[in-house]
Structure formats: C-alpha cells, structure tokens
Amino acid sequence: GGTVKLKIRAGTQPGTMVRLAGRGIPRLHGFGKGDQYVRLRVKIPTRLSHSQKVAVRQALGE
C-alpha cells in the first residue's frame, strides 16, 4: 500500500498503462512483490477561468 508519486512525461495520452515495478502484491511462494500496472485517466475540467482558457489555447498553439 501507500502513495506513489509518478512523473508523467509530456504528451502521455489518456489510457496509457504505466508499470510500477515491485509495487504489486506479494508473489505466491516466492520472494518480493510483483509489478502493479496503472491506467492513466485524464479528467478535463468543464469550467475554466479566462486566464486558464488563454493558457490552454497557447499550449495548443491556437
């Protein structure tokens, strides 16, 4: 258990699978833990301030 901080690379798409080596459940009859896989979900805000809208447009090159 616990919290893990991930660094997500720029351009990573929603639905991407990320492997957390050694962060899974303990291995059956073995040593250590397996890997945990995380699927990234991106939630797009529905309300943005004017300055946030400007920042998004700049980021998209509009």
TrEMBL record:
Gene3D superfamilies: Urease metallochaperone UreE, N-terminal domain
Signal peptide annotation: none
GO MF, any single term: unfolded protein binding
Coiled-coil parts of chain: none
Pfam families: DnaJ_C
Gene Ontology BP, a term: protein folding
Ranges for domain Chaperone DnaJ C-terminal: 2-45
InterPro entries for this protein: DnaJ_C (IPR002939), HSP40/DnaJ_pept-bd (IPR008971)
Protein name as catalogued: Molecular chaperone DnaJ
Organism for this UniProt entry: Candidatus Shapirobacteria bacterium CG09_land_8_20_14_0_10_49_15
